[in-house]
Amino acid sequence: MAKSSKKNPLKGSMFRQRLSQRLEPLRWFAHEYAVALAMLVAAAAFGAYMLIPLHSPVIKREQVSAVITTIVSTPLRPNRAGGSYYQYAVIPNGTTSPIVIRDDLSPSLLPREIGSVIELERRTRANGTVTYHMSPIGL
Known about the structure:
With about 140 residues, the chain is of the alpha+beta class. The protein has helices at about 10-30, 30-50, and strands spanning about 60-75, 85-90, 100-105, 115-125, 130-135. It is elongated and about 85 Å long.
């Protein structure tokens, strides 16, 4: 007798049945595995973040004056010291682009006037970034 060209249909179904039985616990605990994997990825990302140098040292400090052009926001709640703060768009002398600066140093509850001149401290870091901070001088 000639062999049939069809494969045994039971052989494949038994494999699927065994595989299904072995994967059943994974289905039961899929949520827990997903949470554990997310925590593992978060821990790895945090570890990588901690290995990156966070701060570059300040290599140059300069006092510059700036003109307030806009009050960006008014305070919704007081800062940690109990006073309020404002954010301003200012244009430092020698530049044409405005920057946003936060005023934590002003003891007054009223914002500074638009058009007034304020003192800023320009900090240049070793990696080339430049940041501006409110200067306590001239308050």
